[in-house]
Amino acid sequence: MKITRRQLLKTVSFSALVAGIAPRVAFSAPNSLRSIRTGVQAGGKTRLVVETANRPSYTLSYGDKQLIVNLSNTTGKADVQTKLANGTLIKRVTQIQDGTTLKISATLSGLIDAIEKNQIMILEPNGDNDYRLVIDFSSGTGRGITTSATTTATAKTVKTETTTKPTTKTTKSHIIVIDAGHGGKDPGCIGKGGTQEKTVVLSVAKKLKKKLDTDGYKTYLTRSSDVYLKLGERAEFAEKKHADLFISLHANANPSRDMKGFSIYTLSEKASDEEAQKLADSENAADKIDVDGFEQFSKDIRVALSALQQRAVAELSEEYANGCAKSMNKASIEQQKGPSVRHAPFAVLRSTVPGALIELGHLSNKNEEKLLKSDAHQNKLVDAIAKSVNSYDFDV
Question: Which of these, 62, 83, 93, 233, could form a disulfide with 37 (CB 3.0-4.6 Å)?
Answer without folding.
Answer: 83
